[in-house]
Amino acid sequence: MKKKFLIFFLLLSTKNIFSQINHFNIFKAYQATLCCPLNVYGLELQMNYIVINSKTAELQIPVSLYWGLIENFEVGLQFVGITRSKQQEVDKGVGDIFFATKYNLLKEKKEMSIPSVSFELGVSLPTGDYRKLFGTGALGFIINWLFEKNIVLRSQDEFNLIFSLGYKINTQNPDEYNFGDSLFYTFGSFFNIKENIIFSFGVKGKNKKYDKYKGLEISDTLDNESYIFCGISYDLDIYRKFFTSISVGITEDAKDLVFNIGMMY
Question: Which of 11, 156, 216, 240 could hold 245 in an S-S bridge, CB 3.0 to 4.6 Å?
């Protein structure tokens, strides 16, 4: 059995022989369209430093596990530690736990024009304190579609297009508060700068509906977050990679800045 341990403080764009659940963190520049090979499993650590606004910043440390359970089928589990500082106030806690699966429907082949296509199904468990906005306080259900297409130019230069589109349904928590459902997406591209250096870029976002309390919509809870992102990954060898990326908010509701850096091995 192959054993691969990945350490991710985040955001790359490259073709791996292992994979991850993408909706665990929408700020990744990298999209893992294909699934882990059979009996391959990995550990992923991420660090996300998020500047929400001029007064508030947040540090997230997600820890994720992945396993290629059967051919073209992957399962994953994620835990998150969160620290948020707002002026002199500091809140610490854990986020909701995520469990998900991914299934690869189509794999791109040179003789075929169709892209690689996969989908993810997930559930979030209410382990985070929703009053601190570390979770929703209730179950959530996620579906995410993934597409990837290799493009070869007449000059024989190559690049890959990536696209994902997902939706999360949040249920009502015991306090009769219901966080709004959200639509999230990524559209981008990546290409080799050198043989072992890959550059990725694109746009991504999340649109959230109004929150509800006792069935009534709450004003000022509608969010429309959009970002531009770019990232670089450097392959040290087949297992170890260094990568860094940045996402910049371009809409009023978006976080000001999301910075990610990490190493995988």
Answer: 11
Asked if residues 102 and 19 have their Cβ atoms less than 8 Å apart, the reply is yes
In a domain, 253, yes or no: yes
Domain count along the chain = 1
101: in domain:
yes
**Which amino acid type is present at position 161?**
L
Which residues is 203 bridged to in the sheet?
187, 228
Does pTM surpass 0.90?
no
With respect to residue 197, please indicate whether it lies within any of the assigned structural domains.
Answer: yes
Q: From residue 14, give the alpha-carbon distance in Å to each of 9, 138, 161, 204, 238.
A: 15, 35, 12, 18, 11
Contact 95, 64 (CB under 8 A): no
pLDDT digits (tens, 9 = 90+) for 24-36: 878 877 777 888 7
Helix or strand or coil: residue 185? strand
